[in-house]
Amino acid sequence: MKISHRVTNINGGGSDGWDVFLKARGMIAEGVAVTELTIGEHDIRTAAPILQEMHRSAMGGHTGYAMVPGINTLRDTVAARVQARTGVPTTRDNVIITPGGQAALFAAHSVACDPGDTALYIDPYYATYPGTIRAVSAVPQSVPAHADNAFQPRAADIAQAAEQGAKSLLVNSPNNPTGVVYSRETLDGIAQVCKAHDLWLISDEVYDTQVWTGDHLSPRALPGMADRTLVVGSMSKSHAMTGSRCGWIVGPQDVIANLVNLATNTTYGVPGYIQDAANFALNQGPQVEAEVSEPFRRRREKAMAVLAKQNTISLVPAQGAMYLMLDIRATGLSGDDFANDLLDTHHIAVMPGESFGQAAAGHIRVAMTIDDDRFIAALETLCDFAAGLARK
């Protein structure tokens, strides 16, 4: 029997970008001690009060089918949170709860694109972006953001790509993998292109609580953008609830109504006890979010001090998110070769820039997701390794 092209082509016939990560996990399975600086998984776990609320809800019987758009209390809380942060009037009718940010990305592209439509995304990109677009039978097309512009995408580059008939544009700020926060100028340019070329804008804002310098600005708040922007959010990064799989889309009311139909025929919603826990977590206020993000802020400062003592590796402006993007081109190696050699020789696992697109070639992404002492020791070893390569 033949498997559908839609599924077999999700990775476009190439790698899914996780080769070094899988190699590291294979070494760990064989008993090798590997320092993992790969995926965006907190080294803390979901806070006990959130888990206690999840347990209370489950034991109280909220284990059956929950309302597909999401329980009203959580939708109201998300709407109030978004309105407070953006100034854009938002009600529960603008919100659908999804099984995490990844499901939200799939649903957003499903509602924005028909099969065969071109969907734009910025390179460097989170590894699942092109596969998600292919999974809805749309055609992914990357728009490079260049290292010489601090990985801020240029409106002219997006416009040139959009002229070929695109339907949507996916952006992510604070950005994974680069750690860059898009400037007001960048976002204004993106908004102008979307309006000029009638694009849906899908804005992945799952790192909005991890901003180290500057301010996070949701493009939904820009003039004329609320009716064409779909904002993806998640509990994963803000509250260390990665495994709970609870996210959302915020968008125009008619779009959300149609996404309810999609969810009814795909995920059929999110478990009620998880939604209750998410609602509880969000209502604990910004202090809890700050506590979750603080280790990454602290490690960023420590990392910048380490990097300032050497001259082989350059740091891409680390303005947000839990990652550092490091330019290792002075070593003469690609990101792939550097990451594999570092893993083989020092058992330190990082992600090659090429895992996130060709615009990040010659870079590596380092996740700040282990305790401070081990993180700094690994970064110092990485710097020494790079310096040795550059001297050859």
UniProtKB/TrEMBL annotation:
Swiss-Prot/TrEMBL catalytic activity: L-aspartate + 2-oxoglutarate = oxaloacetate + L-glutamate
Family named by the database record: Belongs to the class-I pyridoxal-phosphate-dependent aminotransferase family.
Needed co-factor(s): pyridoxal 5'-phosphate
Keywords attached to this entry: Aminotransferase, Pyridoxal phosphate, Transferase
Domain Aminotransferase class I/classII large: from-to ranges: 36-375
PANTHER family: ASPARTATE AMINOTRANSFERASE
The protein's Enzyme Commission number: 2.6.1.1
Pfam families: Aminotran_1_2
SUPFAM superfamilies: PLP-dependent transferases (SSF53383)
Biological processes annotated in GO: amino acid metabolic process
GO function term, MF aspect, one: L-aspartate:2-oxoglutarate aminotransferase activity
Name assigned to this protein: aspartate transaminase
Keyword Transferase: yes
Origin species: Pseudosulfitobacter pseudonitzschiae
